[in-house]
Amino acid sequence: MKALAYSSMAPTAQSPFFQFPPCRRPGHVVSYCHLNRLASLPQGMTRIFGGYFFMPKVKYTKPYQSIEQQIALLESRGLVIDVDADVAKRFLANVNYYRFTGYALPFLASREQFRAGSKFSYIRDVYRFDRRLRDFMSDALEAVELSFRALFARQFTKAHGALGYLDPLSFPPANIQHHKTVTEKFKEEFNRSDEVCAKHFRNTYDDPPLWAIVEVVSFGALVRLYRISSKADQNNISSLYGFRGDILASYLQHLVVVRNLCAHHSRMYDRRFSYKFPMPLAWRSIHGVDTAMLFSQFALIYRMLAPTDSSVFDRDVWRSNLCKFLKKIPKNPICDHSQRAGIPSSPLKSPLW
Questions:
Q1: Whose CA is closest to 108, among 228, 270, 235?
Q2: For helices 120-160 and 231-238, what crossing angle results, to 10°?
Q3: How far is CA 198 from CA 22, 23, 46, 187, 212, in A?
Q4: Contact 33/78 with Cβ under 8 angstroms?
Q5: String of DSSP letters for 284-303
Q6: Domain segments of the chain: what residues?
Q7: 3-state DSSP call for residue 205?
Q8: Of residues 249, 208, 197, the one with CA closest to residue 227
Q9: pTM of the model
Q10: C-alpha to C-alpha distance for 181 and 175, rounded to whole angstroms
Q11: Alpha carbon 206 to chain centroid distance?
Q12: Distance between CA atoms of 86 and 144, rounded to whole angstroms?
């Protein structure tokens, strides 16, 4: 791919094409990957192959369509409605048409044309399968999150005391500003909480101990505190997982995203997870591993369950049940769902575990 260079001039309506923010000297060669890591773009700007250009917004003009019209539109695009008309109507009445079309993507030959032989029931079956996939993922992620909350509180307070998380000196000097931002977020979330423990500490003490904080703040906020902790503090916790501190930080950040996708009922099937987590050492000798695919997410979650005692959550039972379910993935002559999700023919025998 041809390298692109920054311009020192900020984009304007008069100079809209391929202008770059003046965060580097003019002429500095930049990779697409680097630009992908830049902050979000100003309103009206779009990133394309490392550059920026203005895309004028257009007014949305598509009219309302009844469920009957939506079904007719699907049929006009080549989808076979192989279920009773009333069944199709009830399904779309409860599953937003826009959500339904997300599950239809693997069955499309083009933007507005289904592949020959595509059927309504095929898409419905994938939707139902995805709902159960999300249940498996959410179940395990809950155990990962609760275990990390407990481990972090115990290890950090052992080293720095109950209120050590509020002391900037407990963190590397380079992270002092980040520490201020994170602790302000903690206070905001703690003061907003109506949990019994939060009310008790607000009414009784000046500041709550970390072991109370971890029960109230969001998983994402807690992971941010871990990420700005010292290497020694990170490693004290990551050793329980069998990873380096910075690697665990990356895995946790990734799982925050996956957790939020589950919480918002987002589609898991046929999703390429945008953040590719660092590949575990044991995976690097395995051919064809893609950490952006669904099956890799389950394998990572299994590894992140290592510190969780089986009396709380038995990861081996979870894995066994998951693999049995994955073998029931819907089959049809239009597309290979297992391949699209990176699911091997014998999931339990995968070396990723």
A1: 270
A2: 120
A3: 45, 43, 43, 11, 7
A4: no
A5: TTSTT--TTSHHHHHHHHHH
A6: 1-61, 67-118, 129-349
A7: coil
A8: 249
A9: 0.80
A10: 10
A11: 35
A12: 42
β-partners of residue 17 are 53
Q: In DSSP terms, which residues pair with 108 in a beta bridge?
A: 114
pLDDT in tens, the chain (353 residues): 444 443 344 444 444 433 444 444 444 444 333 434 444 455 555 555 555 556 688 888 889 999 999 999 999 999 999 999 999 999 999 999 999 999 999 999 999 999 999 999 999 999 999 999 999 999 999 999 999 999 999 999 999 999 999 999 999 999 999 999 999 999 999 888 888 888 888 888 888 999 999 999 999 999 999 999 999 999 999 999 999 999 999 999 999 999 999 999 999 988 888 877 888 888 988 988 899 999 999 999 999 999 999 999 999 999 999 999 999 999 999 999 898 888 998 999 999 99
Tokens of 117: 């032989």
Residues in the chain: 353
